[in-house]
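ugh ok fine here u go
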Amino acid sequence: MSAIEGFAEETFAADGHTFRLFRKGDGPGVILLHELPGLTRETVELAEWIADHGFHVVMPLLFGSPLQNPALGLMKAPFTCVRKEFNNLAAGKSSAITTSLRALCRKVHAERGGVGIGAIGMCYTGGFVFAMMLEASLLAPVAAQPSLPLFQPESLDVEPEILAFASSREDTMSLLGLRFKDDGRCPASRFERLEKSLQNRTGSAEPRFRSITVPGKGHSTLTFEYEKALSEGIDTREQVLQHLRAQLLDANSSTS
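structure:
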């Protein structure tokens, strides 16, 4: 039986890391990476919403327990932050776990087919999608309030050469970024660095990186403070859905 009702559960291992996967839905694959409090009910609700809108969602359990209480997850945060799988302080360096997540991209794409897959990182895992852009199957990455490396607002948790490779891709891969305007953990300077680092595809006017800034103070654009984003006039989930459809469904129909 699955630890999360309505989701199939399996174990996945690659590059020295093993974690549980929770899956639901039909359509192109979308990997959803939970944020620092853990795989909470709020993240599961987001996964269900994405699945209900035509995608197969895969949630790897990166730390903590399924349906973890957010308060408990935050209490355990210092222990999570010192684990060797995660890069918290070193600028210009990817977390080790991203090699396994790239393998997961290949697995999900092989199973689901289509032109490619999507991946959504949030907060602590927001920048993981940067390193995942090395994987050719990832066409629709989303970085929601990427918060690493800690205490270095202008830095990114990815090697510059990876961003250079992502810029050189000849396909339609496009990164969507989301943040609140007054978010100290994901300041504007981090997105400005991404804009400078990710170049448009050769001969294309479409930006490789597109960002959406929600007015006001907040952090969790897609889960805990999604309603706050709505009250500010921006439906962040709908923006993500449009991004996934444009990259994975519209592109699929145009090549068929």
